[in-house]
Amino acid sequence: MVVVNPSISSRQIEAESGISRRRALSVLKKHKFRPYTIRKQQQLLPTDPERRLDFCNWYLQQIEQDQLFFKNIIWTDESYVSSAGIFNRHNKHYWSEDNPHQTVDVQNQGRFGFTVWCALYNNRILAYQLYDDNLNGQRSKFP
Description:
Distance between the termini: 54 Å
Strand order of the largest sheet: 3-6-7
Structural class: alpha+beta
Protein name: Transposase
Radius of gyration: 22 Å
GO molecular function: nucleic acid binding
Helix content: 25-40%
Largest sheet: 3 strands, antiparallel
Order of helices and strands: HHEEHEEEEE
Shape: elongated
Number of helices: 3
Strand content: 25-35%
Organism: Aromia moschata
């Protein structure tokens, strides 16, 4: 069953085959199948790899000129928390003899939620802000 559907759960195996869940797990273990957890990853755009490489090269040049360059950066980031973006990775497995490094692409922003924005400098939180919706070019990130 796991060869046909590697994402099947042990409970589904029990329900569809009639053998106990414990027995199904025992058979899978005997045949060296393991349940690998699927990881979420941010979906990349075609232009992203080149832009990331350009930034990395620029950053390395700055560090060559000043080894403490990173201490003079105000780091900012935001995260959108959404009810539509729920992904419980504990309930998602991929049965295989070898780790396939399985991932699933996820969409950003759901129908409702909130955004958390934060600024860090020298290992300290400078500011943070909660927003009721998405950040975009129309809205300033700074409080």
